[in-house]
Specification:
Pfam families: RepSA
Radius of gyration: 26 Å
Order of helices and strands: HHEEEHEHHEEHEEEHHHEHEH
Shape: globular
Structural class: alpha+beta
Strand order of the largest sheet: 9-4-6-5-10
Number of strands: 11
Number of helices: 11
Distance between the termini: 47 Å
Strand content: 15-25%
Helix content: 25-40%
Protein name: Replication initiation protein
InterPro entries: RepSA (IPR046828), RepSA_streptomyces (IPR048241)
Mean pLDDT: 90
Low-confidence stretches: 1-6
Oligomer: single chain
Largest sheet: 5 strands, antiparallel
């Protein structure tokens, strides 16, 4: 059973297995374990023990072993960011991404980001792919080029008007080089900012710094594009004020110049029957200033953070692709991959022998894209690792308090802890998977209800 399972009525085989699991004498403990993972769809199984002793007396303060757990295993969350693989862990990842991006916009002293960062020039920019051939779309005025007014959910949107003339090779090569194009863009952007400030790049490093947080998104046509929060800081990032000449207008102008500069291009060399191709960003470029909450505009700090978080858990499946690597083309039939997406994947396979260093077939499930879906510059705000560590420390302190131990999670010179853990598998049986999805849905519903209640309470107080 896959990770998109819900609490809907299962098939007879799954229902029978769920009844078997629920009838086990240790079901309540299994349920507790799954609840602690957030209803993870593919938990990691561990076997082992941990032992805490008093260094002075040798007395055992705490002993835990998986020997008495259901199946002799402890289940922990898989941590997969993809919503199609594990909705529960993806929600956690999206939440962390939201707080990371938002901290870089509003400031958050608990994350060591001062609130003065809100005063730094910042914009929300979208860099897109060029055209590889006309596709079915929904223009602001008039019908599509095919003469049809397509509904918003039309399956043909984003597909070529003429697949035989669409440049599929260029499309997947662009996706494959998108990360390299982004690096060239950020390098050129620093030059453009320095030029507009009337200083050298060396002087720029001493007075200002470019910070960003970005996320990748697949358009319906299967081309990757980037949404990015781009900010001008002082030389040490979010902790220092930008120079007097820094402004949203200067940053916007520099982004436009950097995006379409000749430096921000790459060439895929000719190989076999494939001609050389120049890869560059598309002409469509959207740059909008980010304003504080309540400033009378929709593009607020909250909205930007939520938008980035939303796409941080998605991948090529939004364009009809798969969420895992492809072993052979025959898999596309089993998964009913749409024709346009199939052609993109096939282009990856055909190009792979001619550009072996690009590993196009390895990344065919991502339509050639091989970068990280969400990235940030070093001084943008906090890190995902720091957010996860804070959560782990909080849970560890809770656990130690429940055991009657010192809640301090730091090194304790008076105790000695021994531990031994072994990987013992992963996943659920069909019945367990359905029950875990039910638990995950209940957790999500409870959180949404609590969030709405808090929002309503805050509205009543305002």
């Amino acid at each position: 059973m896959n990770a998109t399972a819900t609490a809907a009525v299962p098939c007879p085989v799954t229902l029978a297995d769920a009844l078997r699991v629920a009838g086990q004498p240790d079901y309540r403990r299994w349920e507790q374990q799954v609840h602690r993972t957030g209803g993870c769809a593919d938990p990691i199984h561990l076997s082992g023990f941990t032992l805490t002793k008093d260094r002075t007396t040798g007395a055992t303060l705490h002993h835990y072993s998986t020997r008495d757990e259901p199946g002799g295993r402890l289940r922990i969350a898989c941590g997969n960011r993809r919503a199609t693989r594990c909705p529960s862990c993806a929600r956690t990842y999206a939440g962390d991404t939201f707080h990371l991006i938002r901290a870089g916009l509003t400031g958050d002293p608990t994350k060591n980001v001062p609130i003065t960062v809100r005063e730094h020039p910042r914009v929300f920019a979208t860099l897109t792919a060029p055209s590889f051939g006309p596709v079915h779309n929904r223009p602001d005025t008039g019908p599509c080029r095919c003469g049809t007014h397509h509904p918003a959910d039309a399956a043909t949107l984003g597909t070529p008007l003429n697949p035989d003339t669409y440049d599929y090779a260029a499309a997947v090569l662009f996706n494959n080089h998108a990360g390299d194009l982004w690096r060239r863009f950020t390098n050129r952007l620093r030059r453009e900012v320095a030029a507009r400030a009337g200083i050298t790049q060396r002087e720029l490093a001493d007075t200002a710094r470019l910070s960003f947080g970005k996320v990748a998104e697949f358009q319906k046509r299967g081309a990757i594009h980037f949404h990015a929060v781009i900010r001008l800081d002082g030389p040490d990032g979010h902790t220092t004020a930008p120079p007097h000449w820094a402004s949203v207008a200067l940053l916007t102008d520099a982004i436009r110049a950097a995006t379409h500069h000749s430096y921000t291009t790459l060439t895929a060399p000719a190989s076999g029957p494939h001609p050389a191709r120049t890869l560059r960003w598309g002409q469509q470029l959207d740059i909008r200033p980010i304003t504080a909450l309540g400033a009378g505009t929709q593009l607020t700090e909250q909205a930007v953070a939520a938008y980035v978080a939303k796409y941080s858990t998605k991948a090529a499946e939004t364009a009809g692709g798969l969420d895992r690597r492809i072993g052979e083309i025959a898999e596309l039939d089993r998964h009913a991959v749409p024709d346009h997406t199939r052609r993109l994947i096939t282009a990856c396979k055909d190009l792979d022998p001619h550009y072996p260093e690009r590993r196009l077939w390895d990344w065919a499930h991502m339509l050639g894209f091989r970068g990280h879906f969400s990235t940030k510059s070093r001084a943008y705000s906090t890190t995902l690792g720091a957010l996860r560590q804070t959560r782990a420390d909080y849970r560890a302190a809770q656990e130690r308090t429940a055991l009657g131990l010192d809640p301090d999670t730091g090194p304790d010179p008076t105790t000695l802890t021994l531990a031994d853990w072994t990987y013992a598998g992963h996943g659920h049986t069909p019945g367990e998977s359905w029950l875990a999805a039910t638990i995950a849905n209940a957790i999500h519903t409870n959180r949404e209800t609590a969030r709405e209640a808090l929002h309503d309470a805050q509205g009543d107080l305002s």
